[in-house]
Specification:
The chain is an alpha/beta fold. Helices cover 24% and strands 32% of the residues. 30% of the residues are buried.
Length: 259
Amino acid sequence: MAFLKIYRHVQQHGLGSCVRKMWEVLPGYIGKLYLWRVRRCLCCDRITVFLSNGSAAESRSCLLCSANERYELLAVEIKTRFGNSLSEKDVLELDPCSPLRRILCRARTYTRSFYEAGKNGGSVGAGGAVCEDITALTFDNESFDLVISSDVLEHVPFLEEAFSETARVLRPLGAHLFTVPPRLKTRKRSEVVGGKIHDIVPREYHRDPLSPQGILAFWDIGPDLPEVISSGALDIRVARGPVGDDGRLVWIAERRRSL
C-alpha cells in the first residue's frame, strides 16, 4: 500500500495489475484502520502514516517509503554506526527495492542485488540491480565495507557458505548488518540433499512478492547463532534490540582485522 510499492508495481506489472492488486488488499487495511498511526519514520525521516493490515509489527509500514519495523531498526543502526562516514563506504544491499535506498545512496558506491534461480550471477536486471547468489558472490575479495540484508539468510540452505562469502567480500573491520525473523534457537528446518529438498520439520513459507506461495525458510535463527555457525573470519553478535512485540534484533557479522 505504500506509495513506493504502488509506483514499483505499476512499473513492473502495469496500471491494470496495480488496480486489481489494490482492490484485493485494500479491505484488509481499511478493516485495521484503528491500528494506523501518524509518526516520524525512522527510515525516511518524514512524518507519515503507518498503515497496517494486521496486529504484528511486520504488518505496519510507512506510507511514503514502505519501511516496517525491521527496516527502521536497520536504518537506526546504520545512522548510529556510520553517521557521516557512510560517504566513504562501498555498500552492497541484498535487496533491489529496499526502503533503505534513501540512506544508502549516500555511500561512495551502492550496489543493489537480487536473486533469481537460473539467472547468471552478475547479470544486471531491471533498475540496475545485479543478480547475486549470497553463497557464490561474483565480487572481488574485499570489495565492500558494508553488506545489508533484511530477512534473507533464513532462506539460504547453505548458511555457512553465505557467511564465508560475506567474509570474503568484506574488507577488514567491514560489517554485514542483517535481520532475520526472531526464534528461540537456531536450527535447520529443511536441507538440500542430492539436489532435492529434505524436510527436517514441517515446511514454513514466508511472504514473497515474487512468489504467490511464498519462499521456503531453511532455517530458524535464534540467539545461539554464533555458537551454531562457526566463523574464524567473522565476529557474529547482536548489534541492536530486542525491540517490539516480536523481539526484533539487528545482527552484525563483523570481519576480523586478520583472518
